[in-house]
Design brief:
This protein has helices spanning 24-49, 56-70, 86-111, 113-133, 138-167, 182-185, 193-198, 209-214, 337-344; strands at residues 3-6, 9-12, 174-175, 180-181, 240-241, 243-244, 269-273, 288-289, 294-297, 309-311, 318-323, 328-332. It is α+β, with helices and mostly antiparallel strands. The longest helix is centred in the middle third of the chain and has 30 residues, at 138-167.
């Protein structure tokens, strides 16, 4: 496992940095399909063209087929891999390259220099393809997921501002008796009015008719970069949270107007990404209390897929956040705790500086 030992406890990186952290089942599935596919392809080509195992064309075909299987798009069951580890590509192409060179040494004795030049040319082509496939193929897909995540936060910001325009205040992070979440209060502003109209505010969030609503998955509350085999809970989760506390954008009491943000709405965080807190269902009136959380982004956790940091995401080197003015930005995981605290408070007159 990709973890470090501190005393007697293991600390796991967040997000997991290596492909094998995604679990054994996807690994076995991937390898099994790869072996079967290459075996069938090898058998077909040998019967069809009567090629030998060291034939350069066959080796090139196997190498290309392997790389294709390892870089398939995000459709299940390949999705958990997010692109194969670069070492897999290195081994694949180096084996193919060594076979080509060995074959060239044999053919130069039997067929002359022309066959040798053909083998060297093919070896050069394979080496070039190897360099190309070493680029991390998952990065373009992850960039698209990160953009989608920012779009979801933008939607949340638009809904909160529409609520503010209607009631002249942001919703409380929880209100009512029994309490309900701000995510429920803003349902009408996400084109989810039917769910809101069915919600029974006289029952707990997971009781009676509300249970069926809590079991409804809301895609805009789930970051698309979270692996499919990440820890599951009984109800659909949320990856986007309010940070609560008297000095934050979500005070425990009183109204919460934009005019109260004396530090400036463009300097105050409204909603943060916290994928390391996946035990919280979206319908539950529970968020992150500033005084209970550790200030940091993507901090390592004591369990896989967990982070004690107040902000965490499966994006590399940082996380997306929503500011009170509706802007979404990507915060580096190198952001200092003091800067984070300044951004999480709305009227403490502290300076968040450049970020």
């Amino acid at each position: 496992m990709n973890c470090a030992e501190q005393g007697e406890a293991f600390v796991y990186e967040f997000p997991p940095q290596t492909w094998y952290m995604q679990g054994w089942w996807p690994t076995l599935w991937h390898c099994g399909v790869l072996v079967v596919g290459l075996g069938l392809m090898l058998q077909f080509v040998r019967k069809k063209h009567k090629l030998q195992i060291t034939d350069p064309s066959l080796i090139l075909l196997i190498a290309l087929g392997t790389s294709f299987l390892l870089t398939l798009p995000t459709a299940a069951p390949w999705e958990p891999f997010r692109g194969a580890h670069p070492l897999v590509f290195i081994i694949t192409w180096l084996v193919a390259l060594s076979c080509i060179i060995s074959n060239g040494r044999l053919t130069v004795k039997n067929q002359g220099e022309a066959a040798m030049r053909w083998s060297i040319g093919l070896a050069s082509l394979i080496f070039s393809l190897m360099l190309i496939t070493l680029f991390p193929v998952s990065y373009p897909r992850e960039a698209a997921r990160r953009t989608q995540c920012k779009y979801y936060l933008k939607q949340i910001g638009r809904a909160l501002h529409n609520y503010h325009d209607t009631y002249r205040t942001f919703p409380p992070h929880k209100s009512g008796s029994p309490p309900y979440s701000w995510r429920v209060a803003t349902l009408p502003y996400f084109d989810s009015s039917p769910l809101y109209s069915q919600y029974n505010f006289e029952e707990h969030w997971n009781k009676g008719t509300n249970r069926r609503i809590a079991e409804t998955e809301l895609g805009y509350l789930m970051c698309p970069s979270v692996p499919r085999d990440s820890p599951r809970i009984s109800y659909p989760r949320t990856d986007y949270f309010a940070v609560t506390g008297e000095e934050t954008a979500w005070p425990d009491s009183g109204v919460n107007r934009l005019s109260d943000f004396s530090d400036g709405s463009s300097n105050t965080l409204l909603v943060v990404e916290a994928c390391g807190k996946q035990e919280i269902p979206w319908c539950e009136p529970r968020d992150l209390e500033l005084t209970d959380e550790t200030l940091g982004i993507n901090l390592p956790g004591l369990e896989p897929h967990s982070s004690p940091g107040i902000i965490s995401s499966y994006h590399r080197i940082g996380a997306n956040v929503l500011f009170a003015d509706g802007a979404t930005r990507f915060l580096s995981e190198e952001t200092e705790p003091a800067v984070l605290k300044a951004m999480l408070t709305r009227s403490s007159k502290d300076d968040s500086g450049e970020f």
